[in-house]
Design a protein that fits this description.
This protein has about 100 residues and is mainly β. The chain folds into two domains: about 40 residues, no CATH class; about 60 residues, no CATH class. The protein contains no helices and five strands. The termini are far apart.
């Protein structure tokens, strides 16, 4: 990267719905930068959109666990790492208060 902007926030997001993460950088008084991931997706992937409760629309704290054979993956929706950056749309999620669910 060769930019010399004053970066303030970074987001890893699948902008083009290809199953790979791209990078968006927000800069102070300068344009945002988008770095498109050029890796060709080679595996299958799944996405979830969370809808939380009335007081937690972003479903912060929700978890999704995927298991296949001996492989287990867990992701948790968090609220960001700064008071100015918050998760608004979850691409991984769980079910608030509903317990575990098996989907086949």
């Amino acid at each position: 990267m060769t930019d010399e902007y004053d970066g303030r926030a970074i987001v890893l997001v699948d902008l083009f719905n290809r199953g790979v993460l791209d990078v968006v950088i927000a800069n102070q008084k300068q344009p945002a930068l988008v770095y498109k991931n050029s890796v060709a997706p080679g595996n299958h992937w799944i996405a979830f959109k969370l809808v939380g409760t009335r007081s937690n629309h972003s479903a912060i704290g929700a978890e999704v666990t995927l298991e296949t054979g001996a492989t287990r993956q867990l992701q948790t929706v968090d609220g960001g790492m700064d008071s100015r950056a918050r998760t608004t749309d979850g691409c991984t999620s769980g079910w608030d208060g509903a317990g575990a669910r098996t989907v086949s």
